[in-house]
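Follow-up to my earlier ticket, as requested here are the two runs.
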Amino acid sequence: MRGRVIKEDQHRINENIVAKEVRLVGENVEQGVYPISQALDIADRQGLDLVEISPNAAPPVCKVVDYQKFLYQQKKREKEMKKKSTTVVVKEIRFGPQTDEHDYNFKLKHAQEFIRQGCKIRAYVFFKGRSILFKEQGEILLLRLANDLEEVAKVESMPELEGKKMSVMLSPKK
């Protein structure tokens, strides 16, 4: 099994291990600290590879295992971790400074749906032309939205004006 070529970003195996002593782990192996030559002999006798799994430990930890099987299991573990991780979705809801009651209620229902699905919401009021004069109305509208959603969502950032947009971030309560 010796003499395999490895890529730079992967583990050191067999003769590429530079430590004088290694801590040996694995199945069918008596665990302990061994000189590198003895550890290589143990791996060779079993027809397996000596893989450095923790190079920063003192002494480095090596495992007696089939290297291809080890890589396969590692990829499988990473895939499983990736599957379990959640991505945060941010939904945007746009208002005008003079949004009337019916439109507000319609968008409020959508916001509640998004929060129940676990999405974050970025609600913003867009000011066109001279409507920037109604900044206070925009802020009142966003605070009202945050207040109406307070049972299901928490405010991450208070309304703030960025250019022609005033926005607020809301995230679901745990």
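Run two:
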Amino acid sequence: MKALMVLSSALVLTGLLGAMAPEVMAKSDKGKGGGSSQPTAPLTCASGAVTSNPLAGGASLSYSQCLDPVSGNDVTSSISADLTAFLDRTLGDWVFDGKYEDGRNSSGPNDLGFSWVQTGKGSGTWSLAQAVTTPFVISLKAGNGYAAYYVDGNTSTSSGTWATFDQKDLSHASIFVARGAILPEEPNTTVPEPASAAALVLVGLSAAGLRRKKQA
């Protein structure tokens, strides 16, 4: 009888452990990372962004095409093959017009005054001293690679925002514009210098004096 009671108790204990097992296993799995063992999705250019602010106002315009992260450097003494192919495909006839790094601008033929400021981890703003019409491409170099963003809008712009594809600090950024995309400068109204104005007054008085003599 005593042996039967011991066997019965053992069976009850085994049943309880069996019922608890799934919950214990679930807690154990959560303790091992809670699903963090899932493979991380590969970084793409869509993990970052470039936008532009229209001079006429309104909502900012985002990029419409981008080049997925490429390892290495985008702009050195030459422009990388991957970036060149992207520029040919998006801008067509394009011009390199500035690389801003460590507070220095390596300007292109148009000298647009391209620069950027980092305002957060892997994000910030960019600006131009001279407005351009779209389209344009901005390349962002961060970490061990770079990504490029093509913006194709219908208004002129001179500023916008950026975010790196890997949320790392920006090393440098470069801008490329479609040839002929620069806005013409407003024509200057020429004002005669004081000496020129005085000469014009004297000529006018002399002409008036000659008319009076002929009338006399």
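The only thing I checked on run two: The CA atoms of residues 122 and 167 lie 4 Å apart. Let me know what else you need.
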